[in-house]
Amino acid sequence: MELLILAVVLVVVLGLIVWRGRPVIIQGLDGRIAAIRASLDEAQDLLTEAQERLGRAQTTYDQLDDQIDAETAAARKDMRSYKTRAKEDIKQAIKRREALTKDLIEGERTRAIAEIRQEVADHLIKAAQRWLAEQDATPMTREALTRALAVREGAADSGAR
User: Fold this and answer.
1) How is 52-88 classified by DSSP, letter by letter?
2) Which candidate, 118, 107, 109, places its Cα nearest to that of 161?
3) I want to staple 137 with a disulfide (CB 3.0 to 4.6 A). Which of 11, 43, 74, 141 is the partner?
4) Is the C-alpha dihedral spanning 88, 90, 96, 101 positive or negative?
5) Are 132 and 146 in contact (CB under 8 A)?
6) What is the DSSP letter of 110?
7) Number of other CB atoms surrounding residue 15 within 10 Å
8) d(C-alpha 112, C-alpha 115), whole Å
9) What confidence category does residue 149 fall into, taking pLDDT thresholds of 50, 70 and 90?
């Protein structure tokens, strides 16, 4: 029986605690719920802000990536243009060198031909003079040939200058 009384008293005390403490417990639990909701709202706000920042960062990254692609394409285009221009410049330089070389060769050829002709003419004059000296030509023939050779020597001398 004692145990029964003790159990009844315990139930009454617990009933009083629950009846009187219920608003305090509910208020404590409501406060805890409100704090958790506030934390969740704050977390949601932080998540939204982080997603916005991520979106802006992704947009900036995409813009920079596009800009890099455009600048790379422009640089490649410029490189091809410079390469083409350099090839043309080299071709033109080679053509100028070839023309200059041809002119130099032609000049040397012309000078060499003139020099050879002069030497041949000089040898022919000397040979003709020796032949005249060895021949029994009449003085008139000898004089005419000597004048002709003298004229030729004068022309040869002025051509060599």
Assistant:
1) HHHHHHHHHHHHHHHHHHHHHHHHHHHHHHHHHHHHH
2) 118
3) 141
4) negative
5) yes
6) H
7) 10
8) 5
9) low
Instruction: Tokens 């023309």: give the residue.
Output: 99
pTM: 0.43
Rg from Cα positions in the chain: 60
Rounded to 10°, the helix 139-160/2-134 angle is: 160
**pLDDT > 90: percent of the chain:** 55
The structure tokens listed for 4 are 């029964």
Name the residue type at position 5.
I
Token representation of residue 17: 């605690």
Spatial contact of 132 and 142, defined as CB atoms under 8 Å apart: yes
Helix H segments across the chain? 2-134, 139-160
As to burial, measured by CB atoms within 10 angstroms (0-12 exposed, 13-18 middle, 19+ buried), residue 153 is middle
